[in-house]
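Q: Structure for this?
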Amino acid sequence: MVEIDDLTKDYAARRVVDGVSFTVGDGEIAAVVGPSGSGKTTLLRMINRLIEPSSGSVRIDGKDTRAVPPHVLRRGIGYAIQGYGLFPHRTVAQNIATVPRLMGWARARIDARVDALLDLFQLPAAEFRHRMPNSLSGGQQQRVGVARALAAEPNVLLMDEPFGALDPIIRTKAQSDLLAIQRRFGTTIIVVTHDIEEAIHLGSRIAVLDAGKLVQYATPADVIARPATPLVAELIGGDRPFRLLSLGKVVDLVEAGPASGEPIRADASLRDAYAELLWTRRDVLPVIDATGTVVGRIRRDAITVRAGAPS
Amino acid sequence: MRPSLIVRVGVLALLVAFVTQPESFAWAFEPLTRNGQPAIYTQNSLINLTLSHLAIVAVATVCATLLAVGLAVLVTRPFGAEFLPLSRAIANLGQTFPPVAVLALAVPVLGFGTGPTLVALFLYGLLPILENALTGLTTLPPAVTEAARGVGMTGWQRLLDVELPLATPVILAGIRLSVVISVATATIGSTVAASTLGEVIIAGLLTNNVAFIAQGGLVVGIIAVLIYDALTGLEASLLQRTGQRRPA
Ligand SMILES: Nc1ncnc2c1ncn2[C@@H]1O[C@H](COP(=O)(O)OP(=O)(O)OP(=O)(O)O)[C@@H](O)[C@H]1O
Ligand SMILES: [Mg+2]
């Protein structure tokens, strides 16, 4: 759990983060969005004390971050940034092993952990362990960066636009990988992003910053349905029905009854189901589960109701 | 073996052969002599002059490297940051000062002999190394230095594990410049009675013997080229090994 309490940062006469308070529960993902210069990076870097707050406090799992020296604090918090910051003179394995090595883990434990992480990120250990960062693609570097951040099994992971430089397809993959890993380890994640779509997809809650102030902290559905300020509404944009649909799953609306044609999977998003209905000019789709068994159907009308503004 | 390597080994072998057995090359320098002048300088053994020349350059360069890198490290730490602009200015300014002037200024203080030459080479060699060390330590990729802090390295760990290894190729380029300047400048040292290859050249100038000037100049020139070439190669391989340049 990360508790951010009245956190403020002043540079000379300028207040770039202004009394921000919010709490990220265990195993939740908080996505921080806001216009450029709104203080997202500054806020994130105050959590692991790369920047010292002017006032306010941060507690991680109940413990004030000022209770330990900054470098010790940072070893316990994963940190992944845009540009990845891999050490160019170290191999992939050495990069991933950085924090365990700093923490004095035994050699065998480090090696086992590195191999497990490489495996988890679909980078075959035999092939990648000894590669240098400059011989990797952007997507591979990004995965090594996150693997390094997770190497010492931190409870909390901070990410600053970690997918910013990836092309759309790799980016989608990286997002779902992150979600899978988050579910597996129960890591609490705070991720800064420019991309509202990414925030909606990843966040259990979305924190919206505007000129250093937290203007809304709510679930994606709430932020879409009830934007707190005009700025939030503008961030969400005109695609609100579709953004709402992207949050729901087919399984939420599945019902008994006949349907024909190409089926859709129960874990697909409502948005995908709606697109499929429109594209194939149908009113109902058969729904199948992961094994391919038909479990029911989904109607276009039912989806349309879900896409409307809440009353 | 690659042809470029054969050329390098050949040139080195020729140099060693010449400084150890200069008499066997008398035929090559005879055409440059007049009125039965000696073709080969024999007052002092060429090999001793060469070794002494190299030793002075080596001592001056090692000391200059230690001090310059040490200074650069200090002024790039948070506590020394105030002095960073000043050291930059000194590094740039110092290089507009001709080495001969440094030598001339050192003599009144240190007298004649190897001392003033060492000091002049040391002072003059300091500046390119300082400049490059400052550049190397202040132009590291921001994402890398950010990550080094973010993973929880202490200041020392960042310096030793990340900053210095990545800055080494740039520092080495400064050392290369400094060594080559020193190899050339050390010849002037013999005007203040340091034992260097300059002795051969000056003997040639005094007696109007072109053969002496040529052999002194050639040996110094070839040494400078070989060192330059070797350090360039080392630098390239370091850039590659530190992942800052992809293998060709
Ligand atoms: N060291 C500093 N000194 C003075 N001002 C700073 C400093 N660091 C950041 N700022 C200012 O603080 C504000 C917030 O910066 P920050 O990097 O947190 O924004 P951001 O929301 O991450 O923006 P972006 O989306 O462009 O990354 C900006 O106006 C920036 O210019
Ligand atoms: Mg930012």
